[in-house]
Design a protein that fits this description.
Helices cover 40% and strands 17% of the residues. The protein is an alpha/beta fold. Strands 1, 2, 4, 5, 6, 8, 9, 10, 11, 12, 13 and 14 form a twelve-stranded mixed beta sheet that branches. Strands 3-7 form a two-stranded parallel ribbon. The chain has a two-stranded antiparallel sheet with strand order 15-16. Helix 2 packs across helix 9 and helix 3 crosses helix 9.
Length: 705
């Protein structure tokens, strides 16, 4: 015990010295008066020094001790554990139960019948990882797959994207009535199911190719972090890019197509027995033979029997009530359910969330209360399709749209040491400032390390003997700065951002994560490869905590809609350029939307100046409260009353996950995707809807006095 206390004392002293060196001559925090900024920095140092990597490791070991798929008794045990942690930290908390239609496998089987026989699937197994021997390991399946008993020849379709099927059609290869085998990657697996179904496939086999996350990337587990030969990526194929969080009564967001995930060791038996034309060079994978597209002679029998069952799922919600503006709410969330043990996804995030809560509990015990309320949310049912967060957000819709400042999300927090983030344009400057104030375990700050890696990557792209593609206005690589990306989909922030119009951000430390959604995504993998010292779990807890503290305590909300307007101008110009390349320059009238975006830039710039003037006065300046209330409403101006074409649940006019990517962000999706489909009348309607939204946002900002 004495050694442990000495270690913690030394660690705390080193952190405080580092934090002090980082805080010297720090600029005033965005949104704070000078006096409040200094006080906030002192509070933040107290918060950050209270976090502990050893405690984080203990939390992670407990959370990942057994498989805990949504709706299972083990999932309920994790909910009770998280609840007790919140209560132990002195934070009021409760479990909110919802009923969800979940997907469960009854029978999962495939057999290669010709030209040789192979019976599958094979079990996931690595001798040195004891989870391989757990009889409670869940089978590898695709949730919401259709059911069926099918015998058909096989066709290989690369990643299963629309362009891949177009290639097969150009070679006279029909998909209708066939079993298609495609590799994971490039888009959400539910998109692969939908595209295969659209082309008349009888069944779909998904496999992880070693070129993408296996031995071609590096040593496979357990020698290295990459996917072993028997590892299988589970996952939902719900059409959540149309409607997440529910199974539609008409089944419109559920595939009818039987779908199975395979390991690359099982997939190899099928792929090496395909003949027909050799696959194009960019279709070749990492297995030790030439890939052919078929048709045949490989014939496979798929036997898939799925059921949909109504089961309870459990969100755990902890609340710290604000002292001055309790109806204004900062939300922080992570999902807790896993396909198996959840070492990285999601329980690295749960660990950081709980360690952040522990730090906030320390502040509460010292007498601190936030200006605004902070709600800490542990979601259930995310892996199936964001069921817990969507149901909860819908239940609390009025309260959230009336007072939610922002939603801070972490899905998986740590798979390595490379910082990634995505957010709305109005929070990008804020998020970068937070990252500049959190020490990186490798030295410097999280932001400085991200800048360093960005510049290293850019230098590696410079090829001797070839000119550089530096854009219209190149600048020295040493001046390039890390910038968060845009919000896409596939995680819990969609309930708040895409549907309710609440600003959101998402963060993670990524790395060589080859065991995604397999049983090997466990505590041992994290100890060996992801974060052996759990220092990056603590770094994420600090990032989440500082972001939450600043948004909860700030005098003027740090939402910069001028950046939003400027980005929209860029997106409009990009679509205009695409039309020019297609020879359709005159098909759409962009002028009203461009003018409306300019109006937003002007109104937001004026609002920023008023905010600065308020902060130079004092925190009680007349109009500051009203300004903050208006800023809370602005993001909702971008919501379309009728939603996006073909998927009305998604209502945000500026960003959404792509219909044919599922996770990747698409800017101005209503316009972009109707242009891609050649539906120019709909595209013009979407331009009109965007123009109206921009005018509304500008008017709100102009009303700040």
């Amino acid at each position: 015990m004495e050694r442990r206390c000495n270690f913690l004392a030394v660690t705390t002293i080193l952190f405080l010295l580092t934090a002090h060196s980082l805080s010297v001559d720090k600029p005033r925090l965005q949104g704070f008066t000078v006096d409040h900024s200094d006080a906030e920095r002192g509070l933040e140092e107290q918060f950050m020094s209270s976090l502990d990597a050893r405690r984080a490791r203990s939390i992670h070991k407990t959370l990942t001790s057994e498989p805990h798929i949504a709706g299972s008794p083990a999932d309920r045990r994790t909910a009770e554990y998280v609840l007790q942690q919140f209560l132990k930290d002195g934070i009021e908390a409760q479990i909110e139960t919802f009923e969800a239609v979940l997907s469960e496998p009854r029978r999962i089987k495939f057999d290669l019948l010709s030209p040789v026989t192979f019976l599958g699937p094979s079990p996931e197994y690595v001798a040195s990882d004891q989870v391989s021997n757990n009889v409670r390991n869940p089978p590898a399946f695709n949730a919401y797959s259709g059911s069926g008993n099918i015998v058909a020849p096989v066709v290989y379709a690369n990643y299963g994207l629309p362009v891949d099927y177009q290639f097969l059609q150009s070679k006279g290869i029909s998909i209708s009535g066939k079993i298609v085998i495609v590799r994971y990657g490039r888009c959400y697996r539910g998109v692969k199911a939908r595209v295969a179904e659209e082309h008349g496939a009888a069944g779909l086999l998904l496999y992880s190719d070693p070129q993408d996350d296996g031995y071609h990337a590096g040593d496979p587990y357990p020698k290295g972090p990459w996917r072993p030969a028997s590892g299988v990526q589970r996952g939902s194929v719900l059409y959540e890019f149309i409607t997440p969080g529910t199974v539609e009564p008409d089944g419109s967001n559920v595939p009818r197509l039987p779908t199975l995930p395979l390991s690359y060791s099982d997939a190899a038996h099928i792929l090496e027995n395909l003949k027909g034309p050799a696959a194009p060079p960019d279709w070749q994978g990492g297995l030790p033979f030439t890939y052919h597209v078929g048709l045949g002679p490989a014939v496979v029998r798929m036997r898939v029997q799925m059921s949909q069952v109504v089961r309870p799922i459990w969100n755990v919600i902890a609340k710290i009530r604000g002292a001055q503006e309790p109806d204004e709410i900062v939300l922080v969330g992570n999902h807790r359910d896993a396909w198996a043990y959840g070492g990285v996804d999601p329980n690295s995030g749960t660990t950081s969330l709980l360690e952040m809560a522990r730090g906030l509990g320390t502040l509460l015990r010292s007498g601190w209360r936030p200006r605004r309320s902070i709600w800490i949310c542990s979601w259930d049912g995310e892996e199936m399709g964001e069921f817990g967060s969507v149901a909860w957000a819908q239940k609390h819709k009025a309260e959230l749209q009336g007072g939610a400042v922002a939603y801070l999300n972490v899905d998986y927090a740590v798979a390595g040491n490379r910082f990634f983030a995505a957010t709305v344009p109005s929070l990008k400057k804020f998020l970068s400032q937070v990252a500049s104030d959190v020490p990186d375990p490798a030295g410097g700050t999280v932001l400085s390390r991200a800048n360093q890696r960005l510049r290293e990557d850019l230098r590696q792209k410079l090829t001797p003997g070839r000119p550089a593609d530096a854009g219209e206005e190149p600048q020295p690589i040493g001046r390039e700065e890390f910038e968060p990306g845009n919000l896409g989909g596939g995680t819990d922030y969609i309930a708040f951002f895409d549907h309710l119009g609440i600003p959101a951000l998402d963060m993670k430390f990524d790395g060589s994560y080859g065991v995604y959604h397999s049983i090997f995504d466990d505590h041992l993998w994290m100890l060996k490869f992801g974060d052996p010292t759990f220092a990056y779990h603590v770094a994420m807890a600090r990032l989440l905590g500082l972001a939450a503290l600043r948004l909860a305590d700030t005098d003027a909300l740090p939402l910069d809609y001028r950046a939003y307007g400027q980005d929209i101008e860029t997106y409009l110009e990009g679509i205009r350029n695409k039309l020019a390349l297609l020879g359709d320059s005159g098909r759409l009238d962009f002028q009203p939307a461009h003018e409306a975006a300019g109006e937003l830039v002007q109104a937001a710039g004026d609002q920023n100046e008023r905010s600065s003037a308020y902060l130079l006065q004092n925190a009680q300046a007349p109009g500051l409260h009203d300004m903050n209330r208006i800023l809370i409403e602005v993001e909702q101006s971008f919501l379309l009353p009728g939603g996006l074409p073909g998927r009305p649940w998604y209502r945000h006019a500026v960003y959404a996950p792509g219909t044919y990517s599922g996770y990747e962000s698409v800017a101005l999706p209503g316009i972009e995707e109707t242009v891609d489909a050649g539906e120019y009348e709909k595209a013009q309607q979407q331009l009109g809807a965007l123009t109206a939204a921009l005018h509304h946002a500008a008017r709100l900002l102009a009303s700040v006095r």
